[in-house]
Amino acid sequence: MESKFSHIIVFFLLATSLETLMARKESVGPEVIELLKEFQCNGKLSWPELIGEPTKLAKEIIEKENSLITNVQILLNGSPVTKDFSCNRVRLFDNILGDVVEMPVVR
């Protein structure tokens, strides 16, 4: 019985430390993405002025201002997305009224 208890304790200790390591790794993510943008992506990378604008108009503006953007995705705010990075992709998050609710950036 003591052997099973010690195995459970060890399991929880390992799980806790693994979660801590994963949290540290995630916190480094935005800095790495910013470096990638700085060194690999060309053209305009963010459009804060488009918050509140209709998403279809925002898509046209983004494609006009950065011809390297070939993949503009219109998604409902809160939709799940992949965490991969692409210099030619911008995701437009809109509300049910069709307005941009989050700053569009190259992702």
Automatic annotation (TrEMBL):
Which residues are the signal sequence here? 1-23
Keyword Signal found:
yes
Report any one BP term from Gene Ontology: response to wounding
A family per Pfam: potato_inhibit
Q: Which domain of life is it from?
A: Eukaryota
Alphabetized InterPro entries for the sequence: Prot_inh_pot1 (IPR000864), Prot_inh_pot1_sf (IPR036354)
Keywords from the named record: Protease inhibitor, Serine protease inhibitor, Signal
Q: Output this protein's name.
A: Proteinase inhibitor 1 PPI2C1A
Gene encoding the protein = PPI2C1A
